[in-house]
Design a protein that fits this description.
This protein is 45% helix and 13% strand. It has 215 residues and is of the alpha/beta class.
Length: 215
């Protein structure tokens, strides 16, 4: 179907690049240091998506900063070894860019760390805008980061889609008035994300081309 979509915003982690194992490993490393033996892989899955401040703030409000420093040190040291690409991402971005779609990234990561992943996976040339944690006062699911990205791209919510692997992404899109797109490869499971009722669900990133009538 051809439609009025001109702009596509993507979450980064778990959507465009596979940082799942890196993030899980980093949380387990950090929590093992502060709470030895208390956290398993399943326990940390809910922490993928929220900001570090949210996660550690609920655990230990007085130690948030030192826990974040511990997390970031391990994460950066292991970043390039553990980040992978998802099937179909580069090929799909190639086509979208070639067809003139405006593309942006909206992430809850810090800008410098987000750029590290973008550079590593050679995504730089596709995106005109990257809105990160340090660019906004409120993060997803608040619509502020989406509004900022749309403003920088000179686009309106009704001509945009927000694509992501987490409920924060779907709710942020709904709150901003964009179409919402979930990815079935979310580590939390397709059924989990479907509960938040995205407008579309992708089995592969290339499904986006079918939705847009570009395949």
């Amino acid at each position: 179907m051809k439609n009025n979509i001109t702009t596509i915003l993507f979450d980064l982690d778990g959507t465009l690049i596979d940082t799942n194992e890196l993030i899980i490993s980093t949380y387990l490393h950090t929590l093992e240091r502060y709470y030895p033996g208390n956290y398993s892989r399943e326990d940390v899955l809910p922490f993928l998506g929220p900001t570090l401040n949210e996660v550690f703030g609920k655990m230990a409000p007085d130690r948030v900063e030192e826990m974040i420093l511990e997390y970031r040190a391990y994460n950066i040291a292991n970043h390039d070894l553990m980040v992978r690409e998802f099937a179909g991402v580069i090929e799909t971005l190639d086509i979208l860019k070639g067809k003139g779609y405006k593309l942006g990234i909206v992430t809850t990561k810090r800008h410098d760390v987000a750029l590290k992943g973008i550079h590593l996976m050679k995504l730089d040339s596709y995106f005109d805008v990257v809105v990160a944690y340090d660019h906004v006062k409120k993060v997803k699911p608040d619509p502020e980061p989406i509004y900022l990205a749309l403003e920088q791209l000179d686009s309106k919510p009704e001509e945009a889609m927000m694509v992501g692997d987490n409920f924060h992404d779907v709710l942020a899109g709904k709150n901003a008035g964009t179409k919402t797109v979930g990815v079935a490869w979310t580590i939390k499971g397709r059924d989990y994300l479907a509960k938040y009722d995205p407008d579309y669900m992708l089995e592969n990133m290339s499904d986006l081309l079918d939705i847009l009538g570009e395949s």
